Write the structure tokens for this entry.
Amino acid sequence: MRVLVTGGAGYIGSVCVDELMRAGHEVVVFDNLSEGHRAAIHSDARLIVGDLGDLEGLHRVFAEVKPQAVIHFAANALVGESMANPGKYYRNNVGGGLNLLEAMVAAGVSKIVFSSTCAVYGIPDTLPITEELPFRPANVYGETKLTFERMLRWYRQIHGISFVAFRYFNAAGAIDLFGEHHRIETHLIPNVLKVALGQAKQCEIFGGDYPTPDGTCVRDYIHVSDLAAAHVSALNPDVSGYYNLGTGHGFSVREVIAACEKVTGAKIPSVLKPRRAGDPPSLVADPAKARRDLGWQAHFTRIEDIVQTAWDWHRQHPTGYSD
Ligand code: UFG
């Protein structure tokens, strides 16, 4: 298929583009490079630099590229920033998403795969998290992703657009060429690995008094290549709906740090800091629906194996992508 990938120069997008190319799809990346990197785009994929805020520009892209499907990653995704600057999140994640849907309708493109998040559930009453749990986003980022999911439902009903919304848990790891490089890094694994690379003296643990076995937050770390594989299978016209993507296993912050020490062979000192605002104690997916409907299953389930791939990439790219 000819696939337009918004945000294809970002962390998860770049790995998905690689997977799409391997599966024989033709890929056009649409990215404003605010978070993404030119060097993160597969050499055989075409890049169009553009912004979802520019509806006329989007119409031109759709008229020229004539995609058969859209995979939509482009979004702002920092929880803390969303609570300081909600307008940016509504403008880019909701307003930009709306332009994308309007351009799809105008061009007659009827399939979209959307990069959603477990943040739509907020702090769940029960674990593991199934798709049926209530939506109670605890931050603006999660709220904007949920808003776009709701728009998708109406665009399906009114305009016949078929969609798959993937609610990712904690994306982690890397593939040979492409990995995690955020210009502002807030994520646990890359920050812990910075200590092993000699770029930081210690890592920080945000909160040691959570109601979890060791007092630190528990997350379900899902390898980016497993996420990418799910997106490729979602292009199947028979697939639609909402799916959690996680392994079903949770690891605490301390367990992640221990895994990083084991993989790197380095001693990684940590310092206990206050809780970070808006962090739920535990988030673990129930991925049964994706397994049942898509035949999808995470290949990476051991945290050491996930960290190993991240470590391999960061060692090769100690300062990330060059741009
Ligand atoms: N953490 C630390 N030290 C750090 C960084 C993180 O202790 O230096 C902790 C966090 O407090 C959290 C856990 O490690 O408990 C994981 O934090 P990340 O920032 O790596 O990931 P989050 O769980 O906060 O965020 C992820 C995605 C978001 C998504 C969110 C849903 O990155 O896009 O899950 O809750 F919204």
The chain has two domains: 2-171+222-245, 174-219+249-285+300-316. Residues 81 and 141 are 9 Å apart (CA to CA). Residues 174-219+249-285+300-316 form a domain with the UDP-galactose 4-epimerase; domain 1 fold (CATH 3.90.25.10).
